[in-house]
Amino acid sequence: MQTPADRQDRHEYPAHWEADVVLRDGGTARIRPITVDDADRLVSFYEQVSDESKYYRFFAPYPRLSAKDVHRFTHHDFVDRVGLAATIGGEFIATVRYDRIGADGMPASGPADEAEVAFLVQDAHQGRGVASALLEHVAAVARERGIRRFAAEVLPANSRMIKVFTDAGYTQKRSFEDGVVRLEFGLEPTDRSLAVQRAREQRAEARSVRRLLAPGSVAVVGVGRAPGGVGRSVLGNIRDAGFPGRLHAVNTAFPEDLGEVDGVAAYRSVRDIEGPVDLAVVAVPAEHVPAVVAECGEHGVQGLVVLSAGYAESGPGGRERQRALVRAARAYGMRIIGPNAFGIINTAADVRLNASLAPEMPRPGRIGMFAQSGAIGIALLSRLHRRGGGVTGVTGVSTFVSAGNRADVSGNDVLQYWYDDPETDVVLMYLESIGNPRKFTRLARRTAAAKPLVVVQGTGTAPQGHAVRATRLPYATVSALLRQAGVIRVDTITELVDAGLLLARQPLPAGPRVAILGNSESLGVLTYDRCLAEGLRPARPVDLTTGATAEDFHRALSAALADDTCDSVVVTAIPAIGEASPADAELAAALRSASAAVPGKPVLVVHVELGGLAEALSAAASTAPGAADRTPGPEGGAHPVHRLAERPPAPTAGTAARTAPAPAGTGADTPPVPPEGTRLIPAYPAAERAVRALSEAVKYAQWRREATDPGKVPEYDDIDEKGAARLIGELLARGEGLTIPAAETCELLEKYGVHVRRALPAPTADDAAGAARALGYPVALKATAPHLRHRADLGGVRLDLADEEQLRRAYAELAELFGQPEELRPVVQGMAPRGVDTVVRAVIDPAAGAVLSFGLAGAASQLLGDMAHRLVPVTDREAASLVRSIRTAPLLFGWRGSTPVDTPALERLLLRVSRLVDDHPEVVAVTLEPVVVAPQGVSVLGATVRLAPPPARDDLGPRTLPAY
């Protein structure tokens, strides 16, 4: 007779349990189920575990595994007995197993929902977070198999293992008996366990990027023997940037007696290098990359930057090569930037790494930059580096990453790094695609709460080579969700740089009130008009006249900054002719001096295309943005331009001497650098560019203030969550996915306090009359055929029918116009109070998650796309913001003397719909249309609900890297 342990596996090998994970130190490991083929690996692994660790695992000396032990630990049914291993290079570094037990503590099968769990981690890998990652994955496996609780017995001296359990964030019970600590904990994710998991994810992914950006030693593989070529160029760029670590040149074709190339030690193989190599830059043809990856993995290289092309961007064959590349690198615990990458740059004084194709090292600064495309990366670096006359002068970069096909390291990983990088104040990202919108939105919200995040988003069509999750959301909806998360969304590279430079150099504005001053009346008026167009509140421009001196500018700017009704200042200037003339330097010194006296308000300059002023205002460092908490005062009036009556006294000579920059032209490529602590002012060659950047800063500052109090998801006593779950279960039992009938739709919505006004079918005129008598006059007669539904403009709706005569006449008219009743599908509905017709929708998108949308019904939403969107669950503050976000919102608040409608009731309806789709992910789509918002209350006149098995949510599961 066979025992349960002797039976063959009851389930096929669960390949979906395989996953790559990032460990605490930034390295990677693969987690997979243990099978019968792992006997030798298990024995080898156990031999490398210390006697102390074995004692902690088995509570007794246990020097070796018996054949019976090996059989038991490698034969699993993947249901009641499961074993997982963490592997690097194909070898075990840690194991975990669970055995289902009954109430008596003996082995059991379902429906028993408790299991004993035990870990063993190789001593060389303890402290890397391996056990924590294994716990997340084995808990997810156990939940899938119907296990709800784990029990673990640990010796008191095994403090590390106890900490793994207690720090996980699950609800626990702890006891001590017979010299053993017994821990019991539920496996359902809690708010705390998710917070712990995400904090670990952030630290691990940030460290994995830090290992790439700050290596101690670098090998460039593929350095040509002759000058030129990608490998030789990158080697020169790293050397010329002053990289202080060890640098190695590698090429299998080097002569055996070749000692160095361009002053760098030369080797035929990475294996020949003595000492560790932290980063390998790979610049060999794609067909030779696998051999390089194997060499690097065997040598213990921590990460790769693969510049080589010929991968997913080249078609199906290249896509398979890319998958193989990622699998091979992860097998050795390495992360990859690329392939088809432009490279990486780190300007920190102790790193000075230019492992890219950029021939010049950017100036050090406080801006982090990410681009997927090498061409876009070049353009971004060029615009930040350009002097005078073009963009806004010069500024500096902290780190730069061009990820190419981003097969492994993506924008999400780099965002994790920049979130707490003390060297980065502003993040600029050019995203041609977003591989995981749900995760990116979560990370963006957290990052934006700490530092500005400016993004140019691709049009929604992913380039060749990019693995992107399918989303059904329109491009405009995804953009709106990014803005909700605090992302500063811009449309072009020019706007990306313009906004980034303002945010890097100036504080955040406290509000939308703008002062405008300058020596050009027409430029001031143009700036004023652009402010109005961008939704800002400009005061009347102050014209200093064309004869204004630097002292005039200083006095006017000081007065504007001292005005409590001003939140920011735009200075318009026609500088003296002549590049870097003394007048330009003097004006720049005056402006910096005045702005430094009031550091809490941003100052921008709009200048005619003359580079001297922009150059004089520029420097290679930046200041961290900060928002002053001030309450906006009265709105500035819109009045004609007036001229300054008096000229102020000039600033002291000492002030001018301290603030004036060194004369331009002291070096061919190096801009003048002002003294330490000098206030830097961005200068723009066009009013629309300056004002657009300021407008984005104002909106971002407002988001930052609101993010400190995001509101709460309210509780409603009349919600019947359990009753809704039962009804949903019964309805889903009828089929995989269905739009539920009207009666069940009303019943489900009613359980969440959403009342749908009754509509009775009227297949004949007599039925219509009977329905009207049941509902009470006045009534509405509607055709609900798909081509007429919600199309009052086509005449398929008759309103305010006061009696049976009017009803029968309307019924006959509809039949005459549109056909027989069976084609029209007419219904009779009681009249709702007059108001504004709106539409409320909710949908669960597999990539972005649950989204709640709102707009006015009809042309506003259908033709103009005037819809606002929020991620579910929606808070009370977000519901209020959602209602006010659409362009046609004034119609709800008494536009042109109309009666304001009951927006608080509308907000409550939005919150209830949000709760429904958040509580029940099986509700994959809800449409309420129309929702009539009256001066008192709301009326839902039509509703549809679609149910389906909920899409998988990887954000609630264990940490994993994207699968390949």
Beta-sheet strand percentage? 15-25%
The overall strand count is 40
C-alpha Rg (nearest Å)? 33 Å
Mean pLDDT: 86
Spatial arrangement of strands, main beta sheet: 1-2-3-4-5-6-8-7
Major β-sheet, in short?
8 strands, mixed
Distance between the termini: 42 Å
Structure classification: alpha/beta
Morphology: flat
Low-pLDDT sequence parts: 1-9, 387-393, 619-677
> What is the helix fraction of residues, given as a range?
25-40%
> How many distinct helices?
28
Essential attributes:
flat; 28 helices; 964 residues; disordered N terminus; alpha/beta
Give the helices and strands, then pairings.
Blueprint: E1 19-22, E2 28-33, H1 39-47, H2 51-58, H3 67-74, E3 81-88, E4 91-101, E5 114-121, H4 130-144, E6 149-154, H5 159-166, E7 172-177, E8 180-186, H6 191-213, E9 217-221, H7 230-240, E10 246-250, E11 260-261, E12 264-267, E13 279-282, H8 289-299, E14 303-306, H9 316-331, E15 335-337, E16 343-346, E17 353-356, E18 364-371, H10 374-385, E19 397-402, H11 411-419, E20 426-431, H12 437-448, E21 453-457, H13 475-484, E22 488-490, H14 493-505, E23 513-518, H15 521-533, E24 537-538, E25 542-543, H16 550-562, E26 568-573, H17 582-597, E27 603-607, H18 611-617, E28 642-643, H19 653-659, E29 683-684, H20 687-707, H21 721-732, E30 738-739, H22 742-750, E31 759-761, H23 765-775, E32 779-783, E33 797-801, H24 804-818, H25 821-824, E34 826-830, E35 836-845, E36 849-856, H26 859-862, E37 867-871, H27 876-885, H28 903-919, E38 923-933, E39 938-940, E40 943-947
Parallel strand pairs: 5-6, 9-10, 9-13, 10-12, 13-14, 14-15, 18-19, 18-20, 20-21, 21-22, 23-24, 23-25, 23-26, 25-28, 26-27, 27-29
Antiparallel strand pairs: 1-2, 2-3, 3-4, 4-5, 6-8, 7-8, 11-12, 16-17, 16-19, 30-40, 31-34, 32-33, 32-34, 35-36, 35-38, 36-37, 38-39, 38-40
Helix pairs in contact: 6-11, 8-9, 11-12, 12-13, 14-20, 15-20, 16-17, 17-18, 17-19, 23-24, 27-28
